[in-house]
Amino acid sequence: MQSPAHRALVVFFEVRIWEIPEGGLKRNMTEAVLELYGHSRRVGLIEWHPTGNNILFSAGYDYKILIWNLDIGEPVKMIDCHSDVILCMSFNTDGSLVATSCKDKKLRVIEPRSGRVLQEANCKNHKVNRVVFLGNMKRLLTTGVSRWNTRQIALWDQEDLSMPMIEEEIDGLSGLLFPFYDADTHMLYLAGKGDGNIRYYEMGTEKPYLQYLLEFRSPAPQKGLGVMPKHGLDVSACEVFRFYKLFTLKGLIEPVSMIVPRRSETYQEDIYPMTPGMEPALSAGEWLSGINRDPVLMSLKEGYKKPSNLVFKAPVKEKRSVVVNGIDLLENVPPRTENELLRVFFRQQDELRRLKDELSRKDVKIQQLELELKNLKNSPKPM
């Protein structure tokens, strides 16, 4: 589970953990509190476990998912059941299951501690891009593309992926569809990359399961979206969801609030039930030993005032091999294809040019300093 003061960042073959100071950022950060090495190729995804403390999942272009125990700063488990790049990961409520979508056109439900695939769907008619667990409904929702290249969503029973419960076409646009699910209000939000709108639906347990409501429209297309955690919402304004919309214009982010229109100024308990807070339900050791617990719930009535008592202390690490399941993850792995070899070659060439430019600048600086020193020596001494 993610600490309120910590964030994870992907940097090529490694994952870095950063500590956000109390009160927010006031200057640029240059030093991470922890660097995690284990993937042999670029890291593409990271996800915090929803209930376990200091448990982080990372997926790389080596087709592997590593489970990190940040208490020791090492990978403790490896999921190695994918045959291509992993596109998306999503946890169920207590973190006992993880669903993945993959470039091999398969949807999987996995028991993460053992790495065992419990359910698998070969999505030939519905090419899956993103997947999300729908709270405690024991269902999955995926976004993808149909055989006619139209954007599509599908609803699945997590215990039977033989075929989707429903499939619904959205439109003929080409941008990737991102699903966001709010388990408190049973609302599903769909936002497309390059779109200017955000559709929202209500999810139900009975047919038709998916009820379209309305959509937010904007003339400015979005490049990506972030979400504010529940405890950061403005409950006095009946705000139930907040996006942070990244515009295609560089450096511009806009908050987009989803607000339920209510005239009453009292606390609206029907739209703000008890919600998962920031306190972990399990330690890393407890989760790894096989224990599952639901999230620790909190009320939004008094606002988010209670700070977390957890203090993260980065372990002291030495450079050494990282072995999981008898495999050294830091071993130099050669490129698998000619394209990978060319990418590595050009990346090295860019690095060489950068180093040569830096060396040239330092040579010029040295010459300037030598000239200044010579001028000082030749200048007449004061009488």
TrEMBL record:
Residues 352-379 form a coiled coil. Pfam families: WD40, WD40_4. Belongs to the WD repeat coronin family. This is Coronin. GO terms for molecular function: actin filament binding. WD repeats lie at residues 36-78, 79-120. The lineage of its organism: Eukaryota, Metazoa, Chordata, Craniata, Vertebrata. Keywords: Coiled coil, Repeat, WD repeat. It comes from Acipenser ruthenus (Sterlet sturgeon). It comes from the Eukaryota.
